[in-house]
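for the recovery benchmark. tokens below, seq after
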């Protein structure tokens, strides 16, 4: 069987192209693989100062954790007939507030300095202040619940005011007790500091 000259030229061209592609294929694949980033080798960069920021966020969360159950108790008392709560509602609010105050008084673990000998840690003035404020609020809450259950509206009204004031004391003790940055709102007066409370460390800049 005879093959025309034109058909032979086409076959020859196709073979040469296939050989060229076969040689260039692995090189092209290697080049392509090297330029496409792999998800398996990417490493997420950590947020600078993440640990300190997480502690500050936890402090704010504790503040909100106290404010929410206390205001829920106060609202329930004010909306109840003659300011009188049921035993079930009183127990529910009391348990929620007690759990929130327990988180406020949790002391952060002490980290001894490098090379320091183990020993009793010095008392943290900020922690002591928060514990004192939390204990005072617990007393006021107990008095409010007792007055509400008794149905004495005059005593209940005074107990509500005392509870609100004690709640403010807890919030201020959290803000001033160390761990949170100083407020920087223009026009806001400088807040007092507590002697012995460590300043908030400066976080690394981005």
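predicted aa per position
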């Amino acid at each position: 069987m005879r093959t025309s000259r034109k058909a032979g030229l086409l076959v020859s061209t196709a073979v040469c192209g296939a050989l060229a592609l076969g040689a260039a294929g692995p090189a092209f694949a290697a080049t392509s693989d090297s330029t496409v980033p792999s998800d398996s080798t990417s490493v997420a960069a950590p947020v600078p100062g993440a640990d300190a920021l997480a502690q500050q966020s936890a402090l704010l969360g504790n503040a909100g954790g106290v404010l929410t159950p206390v205001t829920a108790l106060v609202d329930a008392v004010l909306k109840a007939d003659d300011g009188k709560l049921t035993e079930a509602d009183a127990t529910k609010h009391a348990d929620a507030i007690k759990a929130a105050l327990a988180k406020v008084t949790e002391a952060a673990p002490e980290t001894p300095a490098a090379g320091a000998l183990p020993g009793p840690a010095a008392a943290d003035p900020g922690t002591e202040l928060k514990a004192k404020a939390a204990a005072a609020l617990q007393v006021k809450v107990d008095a409010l619940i007792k007055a509400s259950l008794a149905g004495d509206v005059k005593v209940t009204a005074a107990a509500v005011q005392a509870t609100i004031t004690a709640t403010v004391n807890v919030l201020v003790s959290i803000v001033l007790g160390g761990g949170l940055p100083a407020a920087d709102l223009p026009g806001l007066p400088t807040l007092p500091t507590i002697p012995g409370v460590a300043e908030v460390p400066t976080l690394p800049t981005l």
